Amino acid sequence: MDRPATLARLSDAMPRPAALIDLDALDRNLDRLLDALHPDATLRLATKSVRHRGVLRRALSRGPRLKGLMCPHAGEAAWLAGHGFDDLLVAYPTVQPGPLDRLARAVADGGTLRIVVDCEAHLDALERAAAAAGAVIEALVDVDVSFRPGLGAHLGVRRSPIRSPEAAAALARAARARPHVRLVGLMGYEAHVAGLPDTARGARIFKRLARPAVRRLRGAVADALIAEGVPLTVVNAGGTGSLRWSSSDPTVTEGSAGSGLYCPALFDGYVGSALEPALYLALEVARQPDPGHVTCGGGGVVASGAPGPDRLPTPVWPPGLRLLPMEGAGEVQTPFALPRGATAPAVGASVLLRPAKAGEPLERFAVCHMVRGDEVVAVEPTYRGEGQMFL
Ligand SMILES: Cc1ncc(COP(=O)(O)O)c(C=O)c1O
Questions:
Q1: Which of 145, 242, 259 is the best mutation target for the ligand 1 pocket, counting ligand atoms within 8 Å of the beta carbon and taking the most?
Q2: Whose CA is nearest to atom 5 of ligand 1?
Q3: What domains sit in the chain, N to C, each tagged with a CATH number?
Q4: What is the Cα–Cα distance from 210 to 205, expressed in whole angstroms?
Q5: pLDDT tens-place string over residues 102-159
Q6: Taking the CB of residue 4, how many other CB atoms lie within 10 A of it?
Q7: Of all atoms in ligand 1, which is nearest to the CA of residue 47?
Q8: Which atom of ligand 1 is nearest to the CA of 267?
């Protein structure tokens, strides 16, 4: 409990609500992710789960096994390229001319920026943007590796219509007809495995069944692409929740991880993970409605995804605080129940929360307070603080 106490004390002097990043914990988390990574694979940082340029820069400086960024948005990749980042992989397709034109111009300027595709409309949009910029854009086939045990069941996310080696081969042939688009690999992100904590009901059995199918399909698609003359320069897989397993697949050249840097509360449920919290939110105790409660200003940082109590932030300081079921993480104020017999934190003191997910809470904050040891060593802008937002 020492760390939250120290961070809460530091945050007493900050304008709150505040976001704090514990740089010591962040460094250790990076080391643990690299430990989990197979020695033959490199690690690509998922920017969606970071949303802070300074953190991305620090992380990439930790050695050659960290290689490149994965962006959810083509416009974000182009923006980062303008700030000197290279080897950017856009993991979500678009046909919008604006972001694709910026991406294509960054490629024409000599950057390595790639994007996933899964249909001819994506190829057409890329071909147009790349031809206009005088560039050749490299693309990856995005493969849906969800678990489909039969009878129409689909256990996984809805990413791509490419679900077979034949479909991937057909897309590779279609790409050959676009001279400004070149396929150079595949993405086979097993979100249904990576995003399922081991502590969830049935998770271990589900993972045991689902994993072999992921590996089989990734391998078969890779073979089909090679047969079509596609070089497998990049075969991307994984997330924080599956890094060790996915990067050990011999087909895979790189794993992705982002959430593991901050280790938000949803990542506590993975067996064997020694990650530690590195991102906190601090609220000011604004009033004490009665001896059993304190009420803070702000607090409504609820995570995306299927709604449920696991999307709420977790109070970590003072110990034992609980959100109220009637109000949850409120909008302009958030009440907390105190443990029986506890002394209420004073008006003006800080309550510390851990967000449920990484990255997206920083959309609410212009700056992060960067802590090393017992000191705030910098106050740095988030994407939002830089006037950027990529959703
Ligand atoms: C396609 C893809 N792969 C991997 C990741 C990494 O996930 P995580 O933040 O859980 O490490 C993400 C999430 O950002 C993603 O969108």
A1: 259
A2: 239
A3: 72-237 (3.20.20.10), 279-386 (2.40.37.20)
A4: 9
A5: 999 999 999 999 999 999 999 999 999 999 999 999 999 999 999 999 999 999 999 9
A6: 20
A7: 14
A8: 10
